[in-house]
Known about the structure:
The chain is mainly beta. Helix content is 3%, strand content 38%. Its main location: membrane.
Amino acid sequence: ILIIPHLHSLTDTCCDSSTKVQSYEGGSVSISCSYESQDQNNMKYICRGNQPSSCLQQALITSYNRQNTQFSLTDDKESRKFTVTITSLTHKDSGSYLCGVKRNTGLDVFSAVDLEVRGERSEFKTDKRD
């Protein structure tokens, strides 16, 4: 007898929905990612794109390495939320990001964020006339 296990086809993309975030060139943005209480002491991270399989290897910042020139990560364990702040934004920072929580068993948990970086804030000032 040949037993063939039922395989679920997995596509390497993430998340049914994503959070939309906007900021301006030269500005900064904070991205908040919530997690479950069981993940309180697990590593948190963020990466570009929407491919969970390579996210940890391409992490821009992790809770073990909390700061670099453009990214910083803070973890509020009481509210079960970690926040990644990105500074000195440029148009190149626009795009998809994944917040990841490392699971020691099973698959890591992800949430998706879409960042839109617009032109400098001064471009959006209105001209008041009397």
